[in-house]
Design a protein that fits this description.
Largest sheet: 6 strands, parallel
Low-confidence stretches: none
Radius of gyration: 19 Å
Strand content: 15-25%
Distance between the termini: 31 Å
CATH topology of the largest domain: inorganic pyrophosphatase (n-terminal core)
Helix content: 25-40%
Length: 319
Amino acid sequence: MNDRTELLKCFAGSRKNVLTLHHRPDGDSVGSNCAFAEALRLRGHSVDIFSIDTVPEYLMFIPGADTVRVQPPEKIPWHRYDTYWALDMASPDMIGIKPEFPDSLTVAVLDHHVSNKGWGTLNLIEPTEISAASIVYSFLKDTGISISRDIATALMTGLCTDSGFFRYITSGAPLQVAAELIDQYGVDYQKIVSAIQSQLNIEDILFLGNALSLMKVDYERKVAYLPIPYQSWLNFGEAGQNSHLLTGYLQSINGTEFGVLVIEEKPGTFRLQFRSRNRAYDVSALAQKLGGGGHKNASGATIQAPSIDAAISSILSLA
């Protein structure tokens, strides 16, 4: 679904703009939104960015991340804006709840999730792109604005994190984008790598050790799963917010096709994070069966179950 021409007109003419991160924001959500917001500001437009959750500490180096305001979606004054730019949002409820938009608001969706059928007033849905940041980069070049180093850094962060630092790519296109961001706009790639992958403290190391000790493998179904019960989640505290540190291990175990992180965030409520080891294995299809979604190599869902064993049984029954 491609309304690029109308979206470019909207970008040029929309004076009052609002963006939101999706809940539990990742590098692509933060990076693509911060880059797009800065581009709107360079055009002289006003823009606000909201999020139901705080930006993770490890992503605060992204230029513009400090402008994100924590606000429940129902508290956002949607009627004050001309356009809501929904980036990296497969569905409207990805901001935490499904909001009710005023008729006067143009909803402009730029996304790469295969499950996105186009829920906006205007839509640019490109499922073959590996990140929302890639779509934003192409779009911003079409606007004719001068892409700053800050914008490029935010976009590179989104590209790196959603591609698993290029582990999930199936073509050379993401590498070409990365090369342009580095060579033409001066992005410091090593700074991004260091900020995301090399800034661990002792609490993070203890979290990793304790969590990985819970890992189990079902070789018959070729799945690794890592269950973190509610009490353990509480014990991990702030370090547990860095659960992204675990996902690389889920797709590194010989004899498996995918892995799943099962976090009991509240009693009876389980957040699932799927990662594919075998590029041909589509974990988004599995997540969709459980009411979630995402990408072929990385997806998620939230389910209710009476116990963590019951939650795992529900997942394994579909594997």
